[in-house]
DNA sequence: CTCCCTGTCAACCGTTCGGTGGACGCCCGG
DNA sequence: CCGGGCGTCCACCGAACGGTTGACAGGGAG
């Protein structure tokens, strides 16, 4: 019997997962948590075999909760989320998730992924696997520096370079340097495209 | 007994809703649909009292499905969605939805909203109501014209005005006119802010 | 029928941006 | 200890952008 803990801030989703998993004879839901913090605490208390973890949550998010859980436990973590942005997927895998499923998964997908995770295997939804391959194939993993993100966030609000410089207590020249470096990393050539692609990759906001 | 139809493209969510609603003695789930088209068909076939409708779906979305349903049926539609962008809320209410709930709603919230909708009342989640008030209080409802959206979408991709003009077979001057009008409507003064606020209001992509 | 919105185009001007080519100090890791 | 990434700064140039004003045609609403 595989013991599963559900971590999701939506009661509806928890209820749905519970219903689907309890219908499988070899799976049992031993607990639910509505936040990342609660998920960590419940894992410590219940020592489940597998945690089904939502990514987007208020407070401690799924990635953070996964990292914490794996520091003290052999519990497997399967990430279950609605969206599949490149950055989310990469962060989850880096944090040590044993699987990445989307919420449109069927009962069979879910159960299969949980059993695989319990056996120590890693399962990715097909579309997720493709995106991950794209990430890995790209040799230079393009992470924006904290400062670059800071500048881009202000650009997204429509600030001019001079305004951004004043806001961050740096000169306009420095702002431009940050932006040009960000352009290179994002493979774009203007600020608007930089903002949209950074958002698409989950690097902003 | 209030007869409810579930329309959501996520099996997990449908399962969760079914579980929560079946626990209420006066509610019964008479059917499920995984798409807008199917939702319309099922409503026609089953004539439920209330449809619980997800907004974001592939194909015919929740707003479109709601509009169609209300043309031929007295069925009440309660919108249930994860996100609350201003444009989504307004579109759903304009389409004739009797309620707007978020997926973090509790079982009591859900059941209460369905009962209210069945009685002919309108229920909005508190945060949704606030946003709607903001929309209505703003006298000039700022809807971007189709052409303006088209231009903004290309701006979001980093195209210059001249490139956009060539792509849309208009001159750069016209592109600038569209953009300036969009700036006015969105209350911004540069293209980047225009794109981000348009996205935030759900007017883009 | 008239008004307003939309879509189209034009010219001009000042400001901002993007590109280039530097420069310096810091810190981390090989 | 030395390379490289990061954060900071400077100067210059051409291109792009934002603001303004003005214009005209078509269509839907009052």
Name the structural class of chain A.
alpha/beta
Q: Architecture of the largest domain in chain A, CATH level 2?
A: 3-Layer(aba) Sandwich
| Oligomeric state | homodimer
- Write down how many β-strands of chain A occur, each being a DSSP E stretch of 2 or more residues: 6
Modified residues (4-aspartylphosphate) (chains A, B): 54
Domain HTH luxR-type (chains A, B): 137-202
Protein name (chains A, B): DNA-binding response regulator
GO molecular function, one term (chains A, B): DNA binding
Give descriptors for this structure.
homodimer; 205 residues; alpha/beta; Rossmann fold; Arc Repressor Mutant, subunit A; 6-stranded parallel β-sheet; 10 helices; elongated; DNA-binding
Describe the structure.
Two copies of one chain form a homodimer. Chain A has 205 residues and is of the alpha/beta class. Chain A has helices at residues 11-22, 36-46, 62-72, 86-95, 107-118, 126-137, 146-156, 161-168, 172-186, 191-200; strands spanning 2-7, 27-33, 50-53, 76-81, 99-102, 123-124. Chain A has two domains: 2-137, 3-Layer(aba) Sandwich (Rossmann fold), CATH 3.40.50.2300; 146-200, Orthogonal Bundle (Arc Repressor Mutant, subunit A). Helix content of chain A is 55%, strand content 14%. Chain A has a six-stranded parallel β-sheet with strand order 2-1-3-4-5-6, sandwiched between helices. In chain A, strand 3, helix 3 (62-72) and strand 4 (76-81) form a beta-alpha-beta unit. In chain A, helix 8 (161-168) packs across helix 9 (172-186). The first copy, chain A, binds a DNA duplex (30 and 30 nucleotides) through helix 9.
């Amino acid at each position: 019997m595989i013991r599963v803990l559900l971590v999701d801030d939506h009661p509806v989703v928890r209820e749905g997962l519970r219903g689907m998993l309890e219908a499988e004879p070899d799976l049992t839901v031993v607990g639910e948590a509505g936040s990342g913090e609660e998920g960590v605490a419940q894992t410590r208390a219940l020592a489940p075999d597998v945690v089904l973890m939502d990514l987007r949550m208020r407070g401690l998010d799924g990635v953070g909760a996964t990292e914490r859980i794996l520091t003290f436990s052999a519990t497997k973590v399967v990430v279950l989320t609605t969206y599949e942005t490149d950055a989310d997927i990469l962060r989850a895998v880096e944090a040590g998730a044993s699987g990445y499923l989307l919420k449109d998964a069927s009962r069979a997908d879910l159960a299969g992924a949980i059993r695989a995770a319990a056996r120590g295997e890693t399962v990715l939804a097909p579309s997720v696997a493709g995106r991950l391959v794209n990430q890995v194939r790209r040799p230079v993993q393009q992470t924006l520096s904290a400062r670059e993100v800071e500048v881009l966030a202000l650009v997204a609000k429509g600030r001019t370079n001079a305004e951004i410089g004043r806001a961050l207590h740096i000169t306009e020249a420095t702002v431009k340097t940050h932006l040009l470096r960000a352009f290179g990393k994002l493979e774009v050539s203007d600020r608007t495209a930089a903002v949209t692609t950074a958002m698409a990759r989950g690097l902003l906001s």
